[in-house]
Design a protein that fits this description.
The chain has 3 helices and 6 strands; from the N terminus they run βββαβαβαβ. It is α/β, with parallel strands linked by helices and about 110 residues long.
């Protein structure tokens, strides 16, 4: 089962939320690009990993790193993210994470 990672990517930092289908929990952390080991964080994920984020001019290094780790990259447009309303738990973190990872996909790379 895949690990879904939603990334709020900025030039100097990123906040990531991930849902591991193995433990069925949503986890969240903030990484500062200059101080935290971003690669080490993403290396912890095993098996199929799908990382979704909105690309920017500064994200090429991040896309390359994910490709080196053989993680699938889904690129979306943040303005098109819609709140989750048709779920047993509308507005829940898991629901909104799935909305980001599924419904805003423009194209996938791996």
């Amino acid at each position: 089962m895949p690990v879904y990672v939603a990334v709020d990517f900025h030039a100097r930092e990123q906040t990531i939320s991930w849902f591991d289908t193995a433990d069925e929990e949503v986890h969240r952390t903030k990484l500062r690009h200059q101080r935290d080991d971003v690669r080490k964080c993403y290396e912890q994920f095993r098996g199929e990993v799908i990382a979704a984020f909105e690309p920017s001019g500064y994200s090429a290094w991040f896309e390359q790193m994910l490709a080196e780790l053989v993680h699938t990259v889904w690129l979306g447009i943040a303005a098109e993210i819609k709140p989750c309303t048709n779920s047993p738990s509308p507005g829940s973190s898991l629901c909104n994470l799935c909305v980001l990872c599924v419904s805003v996909v423009c194209f996938a790379r791996n």
